[in-house]
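Hi support team,

I'm opening this ticket because the web form for multi-chain structure prediction keeps timing out on my end. I have pasted the exact lines I submitted so you can reproduce it. The total is 568 residues across two entries, so I didn't expect it to be a heavy job. Is there a limit I'm missing, or should I split the entries? Thanks in advance, R.K.
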Amino acid sequence: MELLNKVNEKLKEHFHGDIESAELLYDYPVFTIQKDRIHDVLKFLKEDEELNFHFLTDLCGMQTADEKHLGVIYHLHNMPKNYRIRLKIFFDINKPEVATATDLWPAANWMERETYDFFGVKFKGHPNLKRILNVDEMDIFPLRKEYPLEDQGRTDKKDEMFGR
Amino acid sequence: MSKKETTYSVNQEVIEEKEYSTLNLGPTHPATHGIFQNVLKMDGEIIHSAVPTIGYIHRAFEKLAERRPYAQITPITDRLNYCSSPINNMGWYMTVEKLLGAKIPKRAEYHRVIIMELSRIADHIICNSVIGVDTGAMTGFLYIFQWREKIYEIFEEICGARLTTNIGRIGGFDQEWSKKTWDLIDTFLKEYPKGLKEFSNLLERNKIFMDRTVNCGPISAEMALSYSFVGPNLRAAGVDYDVRVMNPYSSYEDFTFTVPVGTQGDTYDRFMVRQHEMWQSLSIIEQAIKKMPEGPMHADLPDFFLPPKEQVYNNMEALIYHFKIVMGETDIPKGEVYHCVEGGNGELGFYLISDGGRTPFRLHFRRPCFIYYQAYPEMVKGIMLSDAILTMSSMNVIAGELDA
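Hello R.K., no limit was hit. The queue was backed up. Here is the completed structure from your submission:
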C-alpha cells in the first residue's frame, strides 16, 4: 500500500491524466497507463532516483474478455529496495501499435517478439520484430481468443453434457 | 555460403579481404544439449556473430493452459525446466494458493522445501557435470550422476514418477511420506557430501579445468541486469539476488543459508556458484528435517483436495467433491496474481489472470532461460567455438523452458 501511494504520487506529479487507474491486487501495485505514454512512464520509472525500477522482470500480452482490446503487461522490479510493480496498457485490437522498450532494456527484445508472435502487437522501433516460437509462415496470432484450442466442429464432445 | 567483406583504411585502398564462413551449430548436435540452433559467422575458429533460432520444441503451453482445469496444469509445468520439475510444480501450486488465499500448514511447507532443495541439487548436478564433460572431463560426470539417480529414487518413492513428477497437490501433499522415503533421504544426506567433495576435488582447483573456464564467456553485472538475468547466472556476475531471500515463500525465512556470489560472471564463477548452492541446499534440507513441525500435510481446501477413498465410498459430500475435482469443475475466484519462486535457473514466475471460471483466463510463465538466452550472441562474440559451447552449457539453457 505504501509503495502504491509512493509510485502513484510520483506518477501523478509527472504524468497527470495519463494514469487511468492505480490499485493493489494481491500485494502487487498495478497501474493502468494511457497507451501512448508508456515509453515515457517506463523511462521515468527506470531513471527516477528514488524508485529506480532497473529490472524488467516480465513483459507479456493479453486479450481482454470482450475480445476487442489487447493489452501489454510489464512487471518491473527494484532489487535493492525490493519494490515490484505491474504496469498495464490496453489498446484497440485493430490498431495494435505500442512503443518498444528495447532501448531501455535489451531483455525486452525477445519478450516483445513473443508478444508479437502470439498476439500480433506491433512494437514500434523494435530492431527485429518477427516471430520467435512459431513458424514464420504462420498467418494467425494463436493466443487470441478467436482461435479456439480444440476443433469446434467436433460433435462427440458437447459442453452442455458437462454442465459448462 | 560465404560472404565477402572489405575493409578500407586511409593509407591503402584495400588492406584486407576477409571471408567469413557460415556454420550451423545445431539444431540437433550432441554438444548443444538440447534442440538449439545457432547460425554462426566464423572467422577461422573465432565467432564473429551468432543468430540463435529457437522454438523447435514449442508446445503452446500458454494456450493449452487456457483450456485446462487448475490441477491439470501441473503436468504442463513439469515440462518447463524438466531438470527440476518439482520446483515448477510447487511454484504453480503456490500461485493458485495465493489466488485462493489458502493458508498452508507449516509441515506441508517444510516438506515442499525439502523437495525443492533436492531438485535444485539434481538440477545443479546436471549443469555442473555437463560443464565438466564439455571441457573434456568425463569422469566427474560419471561419478556424480549416480546421485541424481538417488534423488530421482526419492521422487519416485513420493509420487511414483521420476522426471516429470507432478508431485503434491494444490494445498499440500496427498499423504504422509513413507518411511522408505525418509530412509532414502537420510542415506542421501549422509553419503552425498562425500560424492560432492569428490567431484569438487576433481574439478574446482584443477589446472586444466580452470584454464578452460576462467574468463570464458564473461558477463558484467550491468549487462546481466539489463538482460534480466536471474538465479545462479546473475549471482555469478556479482549481484546477490535470490528470490528465497528477497521474497520468501513456503517458510524459507525459517532457514539460515548463505547466497554464494561470484565476481567475474564467467563460466568458472557460474560453476562455483552452483557448487556452493548445492552445499547450501543440503544444509537447508537438514534444517528442515530437524525443525519439522507436527500437523496436517495439507490445507483445508475441499474444492481442490481429493477426499480419502473411504469417505468417497460412504459419504455423499465427499463423493461430490471427488467428482468435481476429477472432472475439473471447481471455479476459482476472480483475480490476478504474480508469484515467483527460485527455480534451478532463477526467478520462475507465474502470472495468472482468472475470470472466475474453471480454467485460467490467461496464464503466462516467466521462463528465466527464455529471457537470458537472448544475451548469448553478445556473450560469444569474439570467442572460440569450443568456448561458446561451454558458455551455453554453463548458462544451463534448458530447451523445455526456453520454448515453452
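A quick check on our side: Chain B has a mean pLDDT of 88. Let us know if the file doesn't open in your viewer.
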